[in-house]
Amino acid sequence: MEDPVLVKCIVCGEEKQEGIQIASEFICDACEAEIVRTDVMDVKYSFFIRQLKQIFYKQNA
Hints:
Blueprint: E1 7-8, E2 15-16, E3 19-22, E4 25-28, H1 29-37, H2 43-60
Antiparallel strand pairs: 1-2, 3-4
């Protein structure tokens, strides 16, 4: 039996098995759910934006 593949989440930095792949980056299910639920006026919103910007900066580097 194969060991599950763990990938580092670009948002929380933890290694997880379940999530989504955007370009070459991974977002775990827990972070994806929290991003979707977060209101734009919430302090965490700007944190999520900064983390997600890494996807585009790496892709265009």
